[in-house]
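Example is below:
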Amino acid sequence: MSEGGSERGRDAVAVIPEFARPLVDRITAAGVLVAWNLAPAEWFVVDALVKRSGLDMLATAAVQAAARNRRGVSHARYFLRAWQSLPPAPAPGTVPATPPAGSNVIPLDRAQPRGRVAQSADHLAAALAAMEAP
């Protein structure tokens, strides 16, 4: 008789491999507390996903997935399917797309430590000033 372990869980590794430590730390720091005892084959998949999509993308996807799940997430295995559907990380030096000319999107200036409301007020003031100028 089994003592509650499945075939998959019997070979699970409770120790987190070094390559995964930054990922686990980011997810845990965000308040998502899950079990990380994955099978060796699952850790192999996680390693490949970290190399393909990057730590930031995986951690963000895990935190978002945990937030969407009403019943809560108890095991890191829950994230594997979502991670496998993520795109590869952009190549180094890739510049984010900019809105087309004439768009009504106000770009965020992340260099300024000001909030979005203050930035929006500045953009509105500049637009009003431009309308009043002869």
About this structure: DSSP finds six helices and no strands in the chain. Helices lie at 7-10, 21-29, 40-53, 55-68, 77-84, 116-132. Residues 1-5 have pLDDT under 50 and may be disordered.
